[in-house]
Design a protein that fits this description.
single chain; alpha/beta; Rossmann fold; 2 domains; six-stranded parallel beta sheet; three-stranded parallel beta sheet; 10 helices; 11 strands
Length: 285
């Protein structure tokens, strides 16, 4: 029996509807959620991502600020701008779109953002809060993946989850969130000698390495939940993920498509984090 699709577009609509209602109520009480997005340079993909984020804010009733700067902007100028936004009471979340020009250190930029406004959840302190199980902001993509799994009604307690990838933005925080849900977690990566050995034992597989066909049908346990975080292009230029959808969907129990799976949820959870930040300021979080 083919796997059931986990529709990220539909789940995103549901969550965004709730976010918009909460934002409207918060605004009526005097606190309108605000997100500042900073774009430095002319990376075409970044412009698309930023436009989508600003539109999502507008649709949810948020206050949004988009600041575009030339690639010649200095690191000191960017850090100074972030400092001003850190002290702006109308801004509850700050996002600096990556990648940055080479002369700007992304680590310095991320660490310059106030933890109270780190709605991407990328700072060292935010990572530490996640590690310790404290109430900080969760990185948006892993957070969205957890919501997708939850939407199936699948109980993660006692299940074996395999995360393919160990990045600071997806792989590592994904593993921590799965641990918090009481799953037993294995993290695989480029140094793992026999990936299929691990994935065949997994009740849940999250593929996040950025390489197509990393996971194929013969590597999946029947009935497993498969979350595909990858964004790649096939030989025909068509968008695809890290998972060989055709073969894996014949074995898995649940699977996310690409596009229409994890992607929509990433921006949705950015909105959720920004709303949560505003609610904390208003004394409701």
């Amino acid at each position: 029996m083919p796997a059931r699709l986990i529709n990220g577009n539909e789940l995103s609509k549901q969550i965004r509807s709730d976010i918009a209602q909460r934002a409207a109520e918060l605004t009526r009480q005097g606190t309108r959620p605000g997100l500042a997005v900073i774009l430095v340079g002319e990376d075409p993909a970044s412009h698309v991502y930023v436009r989508n984020k600003v539109k999502a804010c507008h649709d949810a009733g948020f206050h949004s600020v988009l600041e575009k700067y030339e690639a010649t902007m200095t690191e000191a100028e960017l850090l100074a701008r972030i400092d001003l936004l850190n002290h702006d009471p109308a801004i509850h979340g700050i996002l600096v779109q990556m990648p940055l020009p080479r002369h700007i250190d992304p680590h310095k930029v991320i660490e310059a953002i106030s933890t109270r406004k780190d709605v991407d959840g990328y700072s060292v302190l935010s990572a530490g809060e996640l590690m310790a199980g404290l109430d900080g902001f969760r990185p948006c993509t892993p957070y969205g993946c957890m919501k997708l799994i939850e939407s199936t009604g699948y109980d993660l307690r006692g299940k074996h989850a395999v995360v393919i990838g160990r990045s600071n933005t997806v792989g590592k925080p994904m593993a921590l969130l799965l641990l918090q849900a009481n799953a037993t977690v294995t993290v695989c990566h480029s140094g793992t000698p026999d990936l299929a050995y691990h994935t065949r034992q997994a009740d849940v597989v999250v593929a996040a390495v950025g390489r197509r066909n990393t996971l194929t049908g013969d590597m999946v346990k029947p009935g497993a939940v498969v979350i595909d975080v990858g964004i790649n292009r096939d030989d025909a230029g068509k968008l695809c993920g890290d998972v060989d959808f055709a073969s894996v969907s014949e074995v898995a129990g649940w699977i996310t498509p690409v596009p229409g799976g994890v992607g929509p949820m990433t921006i949705t959870m950015l909105l959720a984090n920004t709303l949560e930040s505003a609610e904390r300021v208003a004394g409701r979080g």
